[in-house]
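WARN retry 2 of 3 for item q-0093 after timeout on previous attempt; input resubmitted unchanged.
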Amino acid sequence: MKVVDEYILRQPELYREMLLHVIAVIAHDLPEAELLFKWGIPYFYYKKKPFCYLAPNHKKKFLDVGFAKGFELKENQEFLIGEKRNTVKSLRYYALEEIDNQVLIAVIKEALTLYRT
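OK item q-0093 returned
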């Protein structure tokens, strides 16, 4: 079993469900992305470059889906959180039911355009 799989399976149910859902959406819409375990969290790489990470925050009880080139994204700004980060913007989920697949897919597709050059 891969380290990333072990990490996901060790998560409390709340995070595990959200992780598995987001991974399934990303894998479906971007099958050439590779899920690795980097910096202690699941991280999708696309064309051997960081694409997005999945970081459960147990203290604040949310899953952060951070996009490596997030500050270059133009659409769906009302859903993206930048906080005090220089390059990453993320979608933040507190429950599985909060995940809007249309928004998630739209952000994935726009982020993908930043890797085509």
